[in-house]
């Protein structure tokens, strides 16, 4: 069985159960800051910017959102397999990440700086470059991360670190945007201009750190992997992965619908103009405080119990959001703070479950990026569906019903997702293992 190794300068690779240092986690997780900047801009700011400042119809933006996510999913289908299979002098992960950073830097400025009346050809082309580059970074990096440890609790900690540093990136970005909005009344167009250049500059810097400081796990030359379609059909046939993918789907739909509609909720439905970024600061702050607690709790309890609690928490807060009065800034802030205490728990634990399943198969074949890719495909398709449908629903609502439609679009998917997730998690669990010997992920702790 191949030994999983990670080297940072002259550091030894972590043995089973050995705690990975925070600085090493921070260095490896640095690209997550880029991922978070792209996701936040794409899901929260871009739809409103393209509609309000570029003049594109919401229905067309909804199609763009869904199409971009579909492209992401197709790219992940190939990139997971390529990243596991193709050996180069620079490694299996690094060349694709470096190429992705270049494409992101090329695609971000024309998309986020599009002038009024910009053609859809320019918008779509820039979106393609941005999303292909994003996939080239996130899938190899995700597979690489699943190989960092052979200990279940350490994998939960690694995935928790990725979520935590993502929240840190959100906090810094939103803090800057909130200051620009509240102190200088900076327009949305100027915010997007700054975001475009920031992403273009940050992309190569964040990717360069893990490429320079870490060595990859070496794939044994005797291992031969199937073609991508056969490989992914094999992965989909594993009982251990299917409930995780279903949870990714329901979580992604709800998350994207809430993100795409948030600025519409704050500024249109609740008449809290120029408070968007400041309000979005609340949940990352609360989540950064609470997430380490949830991570420690997951080491003592079954993960499916923790997940059920986090989904129920989100659903209760979404229900309260339905009834926030117009211009009630304090009430909205309090609900967002409470909601933030359970924010990110789902992604942390779902990623750890994928890592567990991938690790079981890694004893016979290094499929880390393929496992990450298949979970990413499910998530991105769900996000495209959730974000696209949310924008379509808002575009179809008349002026009289617009405020109510925005509330429903923002809150109802989270409530429905919680119910669906709890049903999935409460299904009878296997007493043994699947055909490959992998323990059922819902009983791992």
Automatic annotation (TrEMBL):
<feature type="transmembrane region" description="Helical">
    <location>
        <begin position="54"/>
        <end position="75"/>
    </location>
</feature>
<dbReference type="InterPro" id="IPR036259">
    <property type="entry name" value="MFS_trans_sf"/>
</dbReference>
<feature type="transmembrane region" description="Helical">
    <location>
        <begin position="371"/>
        <end position="398"/>
    </location>
</feature>
<protein>
    <submittedName>
        <fullName>MFS transporter</fullName>
    </submittedName>
</protein>
<feature type="transmembrane region" description="Helical">
    <location>
        <begin position="96"/>
        <end position="114"/>
    </location>
</feature>
<feature type="transmembrane region" description="Helical">
    <location>
        <begin position="404"/>
        <end position="425"/>
    </location>
</feature>
<feature type="transmembrane region" description="Helical">
    <location>
        <begin position="21"/>
        <end position="42"/>
    </location>
</feature>
<feature type="transmembrane region" description="Helical">
    <location>
        <begin position="192"/>
        <end position="214"/>
    </location>
</feature>
<keyword id="KW-0472">Membrane</keyword>
<feature type="transmembrane region" description="Helical">
    <location>
        <begin position="245"/>
        <end position="266"/>
    </location>
</feature>
<dbReference type="InterPro" id="IPR039672">
    <property type="entry name" value="MFS_2"/>
</dbReference>
<keyword id="KW-0812">Transmembrane</keyword>
<feature type="transmembrane region" description="Helical">
    <location>
        <begin position="159"/>
        <end position="180"/>
    </location>
</feature>
<feature type="transmembrane region" description="Helical">
    <location>
        <begin position="272"/>
        <end position="294"/>
    </location>
</feature>
<dbReference type="Pfam" id="PF13347">
    <property type="entry name" value="MFS_2"/>
</dbReference>
<feature type="transmembrane region" description="Helical">
    <location>
        <begin position="120"/>
        <end position="138"/>
    </location>
</feature>
<keyword id="KW-1133">Transmembrane helix</keyword>
<comment type="similarity">
    <text>Belongs to the sodium:galactoside symporter (TC 2.A.2) family.</text>
</comment>
């Amino acid at each position: 069985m191949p030994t999983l190794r990670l080297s940072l300068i002259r550091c030894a690779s972590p043995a089973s159960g050995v705690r990975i240092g925070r600085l090493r986690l921070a260095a490896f997780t640095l690209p997550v800051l880029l991922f978070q900047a792209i996701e936040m801009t794409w899901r929260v700011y871009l739809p409103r910017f393209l509609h309000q400042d570029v003049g594109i119809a919401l229905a067309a933006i909804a199609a763009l959102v869904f199409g971009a996510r579909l492209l992401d999913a197709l790219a992940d289908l190939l990139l997971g397999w390529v990243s596991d299979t193709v050996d180069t002098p620079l490694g299996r992960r690094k060349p694709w990440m470096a190429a992705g950073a270049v494409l992101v830097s090329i695609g971000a400025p024309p998309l986020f700086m599009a002038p009024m009346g910009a053609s859809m050809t320019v918008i779509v082309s820039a979106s393609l470059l941005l999303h292909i580059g994003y996939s080239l970074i996130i899938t190899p990096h995700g597979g690489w991360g699943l190989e960092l440890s052979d200990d279940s609790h350490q994998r939960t900690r690694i995935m928790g670190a990725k979520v935590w540093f993502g929240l840190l990136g959100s906090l810094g970005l939103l803090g800057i945007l909130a200051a620009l909005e509240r102190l200088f009344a900076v327009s949305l167009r100027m915010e997007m201009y700054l975001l475009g250049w920031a992403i273009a500059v940050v992309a190569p810097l964040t990717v360069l750190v893990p490429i320079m400081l870490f060595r990859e796990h070496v794939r044994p030359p005797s291992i031969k992997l199937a073609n991508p379609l056969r490989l992914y059909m094999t992965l989909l046939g594993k009982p251990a992965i299917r409930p995780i993918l279903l949870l990714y789907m329901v979580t992604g739909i709800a998350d994207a619908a809430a993100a795409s509609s948030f600025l519409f909720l704050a500024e249109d439905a609740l008449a809290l103009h120029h408070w968007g970024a400041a309000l979005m600061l609340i949940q990352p702050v609360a989540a950064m405080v609470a997430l380490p607690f949830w991570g420690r709790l997951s080491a003592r309890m079954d993960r499916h119990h923790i997940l059920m609690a986090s989904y129920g928490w989100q659903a209760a807060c979404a229900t309260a959001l339905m009834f926030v009065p117009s211009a009630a800034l304090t009430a909205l802030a309090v609900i967002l703070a409470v909601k933030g205490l359970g924010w990110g728990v789902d992604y942390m634990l779902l990623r750890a479950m994928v890592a567990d399943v991938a690790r079981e198969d890694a004893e016979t074949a290094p499929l880390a990026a393929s496992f990450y890719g298949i979970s990413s495909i499910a998530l991105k398709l769900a996000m495209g569906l959730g974000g696209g449908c949310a924008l379509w629903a808002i575009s179809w609502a008349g002026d009289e019903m617009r405020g109510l439609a925005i509330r429903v679009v923002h809150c109802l998917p989270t409530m429905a997702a919680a119910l669906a997730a709890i049903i999935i998690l409460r299904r009878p669990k296997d007493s043994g293992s699947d055909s490959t010997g992998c323990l059922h992920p819902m009983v791992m702790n």
